[in-house]
Each structure stands twice: as C-alpha cells, then as structure tokens.
Design goal:
The complex is a heterotrimer of chains A (about 325), B (about 200) and C (about 130).
Chain A: H1 15-37, H2 39-59, H3 68-78, H4 86-101, H5 114-125, H6 158-163, H7 175-187, H8 194-209, H9 214-217, H10 227-232, H11 236-243, H12 254-274, H13 281-290, H14 292-302
Chain B: H1 16-22, H2 28-43, H3 50-56, H4 62-78, H5 89-102, H6 107-124, H7 128-141, H8 147-154, H9 161-175, H10 185-199
Helix pairs in contact in B: 5-8, 5-9, 6-7, 6-8, 6-9, 7-8
Chain C: H1 3-14, H2 29-38, H3 46-57, H4 62-68, H5 76-99, H6 112-126
Helix pairs in contact in C: 1-4, 1-5, 2-3, 2-5, 3-4
The chains are: A mainly alpha (about 325), B mainly alpha (about 200), C mainly alpha (about 130).
C-alpha cells in the first residue's frame, strides 16, 4: 500500500515564509473588518489568535514561531460573527490548534482544515453563541451569514455585500479584500489556482441550475439564480482561497484537486439550498477534506503517475 | 531490537531513518549525517522531516522514500499502532453504554435494559441468537422495550466487569440531568475520546 | 434513537469486531427493518422479526445489524439512505485511518481516541446533510 503523507517534495519555501505570505494576504480583510466593526472585531481577532498561539506554545514550542497557529487563529476569527462572545473566539482558536492540528500529529498531518473543524464543532456544541439577535449593534450589525434564511432581513444586494453594509461574519465585510489577498497568493504560487477557480466556477454554475427547495422558497428567494450573491456572500471566498487551498488537506494530484473543489462546491450549495444551516462553507471544506484520501486513491490508481516535480503551490 | 517478551519491534525501530537503515537503503553514516543536518535546520527554525532531508541530499530517491513509508506502515500495523484495532472491549462497553441515552429510554426502559443485560450476560455468553431470545423475554416482561437495543448492546460485551460497566455508564448517561447536547452521538464520541486519552495508561 | 445516531454508533461498533466474509450484508438491515415494520399483518411481531433478520444477515456482525435496526424508519427512502450512509462512511473511515500518521500522534491519542475524534468530526460534518 502506498501511504501519502503531507509535504514530502520540498519547494524551497519554508513553512514560515508561506505563513507570512498568507498573513500579508489576509491583512486587508482584517483592516477592513476592524474599520467596519471597530473594537468588537479587533477583540475577537486577538482572542482567537491568542487561543490558537498559546495552545501551540503549550503543545509544541518549536512550531509556535512558524506562523501556522497565527494563520489558523486569524482564519477562525474571520469565520466569527462580530456578535460572538470573546470566549467563543478564544475557545475556537484553542480548539482549532489543539484538536484540528495537534491531535492529528501537528503541521502537515492534519486531515481537516483546523479553522473549519473548530467552527463546525463549536456550532454543533454551542449553537446559541453563534446566532445572536441581528438587532445587536456595535458599529454595525452582523449575523452568522448574510445568507442566513431565518435572519428576517431584506434581500441582500451585491452592492451591499461588496461594501460590507450587509451583516455577515468578520471575514465577509470586505469580499474584495479577500479576493485581492487570494489572488496575491495565487500569483505568488503559494496556493494552487485550480482549487479556487474550480470551486468558484462550480458554485456559480450550481447557483444557476439548482432547483429551489422548500427551505429556500419562502425564506430567501433571492438565493435562486443569483451566482454573484453566492460568490461574494457567505464564506465562499474565504473557503476558496484560504481553507480549501491548504496544501496539507488538499489532494495530491492536479486532477484530484479539481474533483475536490467540485465536491466542496456541491456540498456548500446543497447546504445553502436545501438545509436550514446558514452558509455551509466550513461544512463543505470539512466534507471535501474527508474525501481527500478517496480522491487521492482514485486519481493515483486510475490516472497517470504523479510528477515528481513540486506541485504548483509548494 | 525488540521489546523483551514481545514479537513486535520497539517504537524506535519504526522511525523513518531506522527503517531506511534496516532496508539497506542508507548507511549508518549517511543516517547520522542526515540527522545532524535536520538538527541544524531545526536550530535555524526550519522544522523538517528526516525523509525530506534525505531527499534533498539525494541520499534517497522518491521511490525509495515510498518503499520506506510502506514498510513503516506495515510495522506500525503489526504493532497495532495504525489502522484498525480489533476486538477492543472498551469500545464495546462505550457503545453499549451509549445506547440508552441515544434511544431516549425512560427510567423503566433503562432498568429493563440493565436487568436484561446483566441476567442475559450470565446466560448467553456471546451467542447472538441467545441474545435475541433474552431481548424477546425482556420485551414480554416490559412491553415497549427495544429488543434490538438489548441484543445489540449485550453481544458487544465480554468479561464480567464490562457488562457492569456498560450498565453503570448507560444508567448514568440516561438518568443524570446532563446537557441536551450529550443526547447525541457526536458529542458523546468527542467526550469519550477525551476520557480515553486522559485515563489510558501513560505510554 | 435517530437514524443518524444509529448510523454513527454502528460505525463505531463495526470498528471493534472482526470482519466476516459477508459483513456487507448488514447494509440490508435497515431496509428489512422498514419492510417488516410497515407490513401490517406482522405488526405484533415486527420487533423480534427485525432483530432475528438483523442477526441472520451476518451473525458475527450481529451488534452492527442490531444497532442499525433500533430506529423506527419512517420511510423506505430513509432506511435506504441510512444503510447507504453507514456503508459509505465505513469505507470513507477506512481511507481516513490509512491517512493518519499514528507515529506523529500523541501516544495518549493513538488508536481509539483519535478514531473517536475522527468519527465525532464526521458526525458534525454530515449532520446538515440529514436535511437533504
């Protein structure tokens, strides 16, 4: 049996260098979130970051300075609604690093994206902490996702989503900043372009062709036939550029990565269209991560032998 | 080198470098050099795997690397450190103990389930047909009890302590005023993982 | 017991039993449970008949079959989906375990604890799909 484990072929980029690039690319989103929501967003980012980094420091002091825990903490913070309590950010950061990464053996050995895993488990264990009334205002209002069907809000507009005036998670206030950061990572070959491109294209296609379910018709009819809304709303862009593109939890072959992105897009759109769960990006990331060994087996056994050259994103 | 009294190799025999050495793919001197290089990299803040170092220094080819990983995989499997571990009695106890709370059994249901499990265990050993019979008798005595939950739980247990453990766990989970979250399988699995990790013998 | 919980607890039970040759026959258990339960003349005997059928499918894997028939399936589709979900999860879980680097995992988490963690994560990941 061939055992495929995380990074074997070296690209010349160190983990620290890659993490610094990811953090630089996330900086515009963070600045936009703090400008939009003020101290509340800053507090959540600091708490998530502190939770993730301190956990890393306690578990493995050597890895604590490679930047991976900081990236995990920041991505988790971007998945939080600004109304979330500070302790949720702290626990989430701790859970992402402790359970999502180190329980599986540390950097390079995790099966699931740590930030997505932490979000999904905390949403299952303490759902009340995620869905606080939309009437709460700090410097703006926010809910778990603008695509949330039970939020009682009016239909979001593309202009509203792009300008950050529609409630959402911290990372959703500036989709253009996320997009710019993601494109920067693609241009620097820090991430494989195939994953975000296939994911976003599949999301757009499915938004056009999926028939409405009973859960969408009465609650959020604006979600039908509106691909742009699905692309800039919810956690789509964050998932495309920052969670699915994680080389550790993505398939090994280029073909596998395309299948992986399609699986993730399909899962996310099914959750958005036919379940009462808001968004579904984090769930889709985990589902796609779980299918990686199967995809690898399929593509390695049926496809051409993999190249020994480093993949694009390494 | 093997652990005295065991046929399985000691854990250091399963390390990548040692496997490479045992397969004759590297010499002891080459391994020492690679380990030294890795330490230097680590001191410089670059955490890397020994396999990466050997590949970088062309001490191994990618094909040899795969060969070592396959051998390492085999050794770990033989030692029960990888993949499925069969006939695990503690997991049987955990699964059986979770059945009452997940089935939302009433107090009388839990009592019937516990009684059937203990009495049934004394009579049935591990024969599944006998467990179905015991479940049937229990449903006749206490209608509304699920036969499948009795037979399914009972057949998973063996030894005299585990049925008792399963009954205590099942009663505790089903009857104590625990948060509603713990009435689902997912959180129970996560909790069980934490408890098992905390209370297992220190390696 | 909800069908989702039954699927996941049967998945865990299947990890602690040796796999007989025809283990996959257990996949028919939820379907048989629904068919027997919905057949009016058998109503009085549905519980014992379902249990007997679950054991008969694979006696050495009786606990898995019995755990899968604990829920009351409300429709044929539900029973088929539960059976397929269990089967696919079983296969998926095998591939995930093969990917785990147990030598890198903390010694206290190796073996069962990490397997329980993975099943827990899969539970939360797949829970929303129950609505489909």
């Amino acid at each position: 049996m061939t055992k495929l484990i995380g990074p074997i072929i070296h690209s010349g980029k160190t983990n620290r260098m890659m993490m610094v690039l990811v953090l630089v690319s996330l900086a515009p989103s963070l600045v936009a979130a703090v400008m939009r929501f003020g101290f509340a967003a800053a507090l959540l980012v600091i708490c998530a970051l502190a939770g993730a980094w301190l956990t890393e420091l306690v578990i493995d002091r050597r890895q604590a300075f490679d930047g991976s825990a900081v990236v995990t903490g920041v991505i988790f913070a971007l998945l939080l609604p600004v109304t979330a309590p500070w302790w949720l950010a702290l626990i989430g950061g701790m859970l992402a690093t402790g359970l999502g990464k180190h329980a599986f053996g540390g950097l390079g050995c995790n099966l699931f994206n740590p930030a997505a895993l932490s979000r999904v488990i905390l949403m299952g264990l303490i759902p009340g902490a995620w869905f606080i009334s939309t009437a709460v205002t700090i410097d703006g209002i926010t809910t778990a996702s603008p695509l949330a069907r039970e939020s009682g809000l009016l239909a979001p507009t593309i202009t509203g989503l792009l300008s950050g005036s529609i409630p959402g998670t911290i990372g959703q206030v500036a989709p253009l900043a996320v997009l710019a950061g993601g494109l920067m990572l693609v241009s620097l070959r820090t991430i494989d372009w195939r994953i975000p491109l296939t994911f976003l294209a599949t999301v757009a296609f499915l938004a056009l062709v999926l028939p409405p379910g009973i859960r969408i018709e009465g609650h959020a009819p604006w979600l039908l036939g509106n691909p742009l809304l699905h692309l800039v709303g919810g956690g789509t862009l964050l998932a495309a550029f920052y969670m699915l593109s994680d080389p550790v939890t993505a398939p090994f072959t280029p073909g596998g990565r395309i299948i992986f992105a399609v699986v993730a897009a399909l899962a996310m759109m099914l959750v958005r269209f036919y379940t009462p769960y808001p968004d579904g990006a984090a769930l889709a990331v985990l589902l796609a991560n779980a299918s990686v060994p199967l995809i690898d087996r399929l593509t390695l056994e049926l496809g051409p032998p993999p190249s020994l050259e480093p993949p694009d994103n390494l | 080198m093997s652990v005295p009294g065991h046929s399985i190799p000691a854990e250091e025999e399963m390390h990548f470098g040692r496997v490479a050495l045992n397969l004759g793919l590297v010499t002891e001197e080459e391994l020492e050099r690679a380990l030294g290089a890795r330490e230097e990299l680590r001191a410089a803040g670059i955490d890397t795997l020994i396999g990466d170092v050997m590949l970088d220094r062309r001490l191994l080819t990618p094909v040899q690397c795969e060969q070592i990983l396959a051998e390492q995989d085999r050794l770990l499997r033989e030692a029960g450190l990888l993949g499925r571990v069969r006939a695990a009695p503690t997991i049987g106890l955990l699964v059986a103990g979770m059945v009452p709370v997940l089935s939302h059994m009433s107090v009388s249901g839990v009592l019937t389930w516990s009684g059937a499990l203990l009495i049934g265990f004394a009579l049935s050993n591990r024969n599944p047909w006998r467990w179905v019979g015991i479940g049937w008798i229990a449903t006749v005595i206490a209608p509304g009890t699920s036969m499948a939950s009795i037979a399914g739980s009972g057949r998973l247990l063996h030894g005299w302590r585990r049925p008792l453990g399963a009954v205590l766990l099942g009663a505790a989970l089903a009857l104590l005023p625990l948060p509603e979250t713990l009435h689902q399988a997912g959180p129970l699995f996560l909790l069980a993982a934490v408890v098992l990790a905390v209370f297992r013998k220190a390696p | 017991m909800s069908p989702t919980d039954a699927v996941f607890i049967a998945l865990l039970a299947s990890r602690c039993l040796n796999r007989p040759q025809y283990w996959w026959l257990v996949v028919l258990a939820p379907l048989l449970a629904y068919l027997i339960g919905s057949h009016e003349p058998l109503a009085r005997f549905s519980d014992p008949l379902t249990a007997l059928a679950a054991v008969a499918l694979a006696p050495r894997w009786a606990p898995v079959g019995l755990l899968l028939v604990i829920p009351e399936y409300s429709s044929l589709t539900e029973s088929i989906v539960a059976a397929l979900a269990w089967f696919l999860l079983d296969r998926l879980f095998d591939t995930l375990l093969a990917r785990l680097r147990e030598d890198a995992i903390f010694p206290r988490l190796r073996g069962w604890p990490i397997q329980l963690l993975v099943i827990g994560v899969l539970y939360y990941t797949l829970l929303p799909l129950v609505w489909l």
